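In this supplementary section we document a worked example of the pipeline. Step one takes a protein sequence of length 150 as its only input; no multiple sequence alignment statistics are reported here. Step two produces a three-dimensional model, which step three serialises into structure tokens for compact storage. The input and output of this example are shown verbatim.
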Amino acid sequence: MKPLAAFAAAFLSLCACSPKTSDVDGLNTTEITFPSGKTVVAETMLRDIDQMRGMMFRDSLAKDRGMLFVHPKEENVPYWMYQVRIPLDIIWMDQQRRIVEIAANTPACTSKSSRDCPSYGGHEKARYVLELAGGGAALYGLKVGDTLSF
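The serialised model returned by step three reads:
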């Protein structure tokens, strides 16, 4: 019984590093709480293929929704807007879920060539990246140094 208890304790300690996700509308989602107490439900991108696709080809994102990217470790991760159709706020967070960088109202890239789309952010090491509809960071009063809960 003791090996099982040790395994359970180790497993639970690992769970504290990852966001708690649920299945809403058939999507893997995470509820994110801002310092103001307001929340959004974010589609959670864990797999490389999902992270590459992200918000590509989508025509809208409700103000109470988002997309959370979970990277395996803290690193510099610039994002781009190739084939993304709407402006987004991109918010980078470190391991402690503290905002380290915000790119507000990043414009959709209408170019047919990915080479013509600029990259945004990635100047600070981040483990988590949250995308909100353009203007979302201002709407929720988010700023560098804030810590989000999820």
